[in-house]
Amino acid sequence: MEGLYRVLSALVVVGLLTNKALATQHVVGGSQGWDESSDYSKWASGQTFEVGDQLVFKYTPGLHSVVELPNESAYKNCDVGSALNSMNSGNNVVKLSKAGTRYFACGTIGHCDQGMKLKVSTVSADASSSPGSTPPSSSSSSSPTSTSAASASFPFASMLPMASLLAISMLSMF
To answer: Going from the N-terminus, what domains does the chain have, and what CATH number goes with each?
Structure first.
């Protein structure tokens, strides 16, 4: 019985670690980070944002900030006064915890109007890999990329937790 508990505990740990590793961290703006010179619409169009992924905003504190806006109207009008959340540490991580659209902008006066804003459409992990779904169009080779412990485009990524569990189960037989 003790061996069964050990195997089950190991399976739970491996499952949790594998799911965590599959989430993608998208560094907003790529190597340039969160600044006025990036084209965030172009950058976002080259990404697939899935539930569980994270946005990482890297910028100079005091010069920039990140505000989350409540809706598309506030986004289009750069209404940073209606922010749902404001961040200013220079290294902010936002977890994409559910499917839907979220809006971000720089809270520094004038920066949003200069294009320092981001619209992110998050899909469920199942939706992005289901048959018939259309991946986002690829952007030019000079566009920033995201970092990931396991690429979201890995075709068998959803099978990793099960494969890990099977491997541990087989090892426990010996």
So the answer is: 21-122 (2.60.40.420)
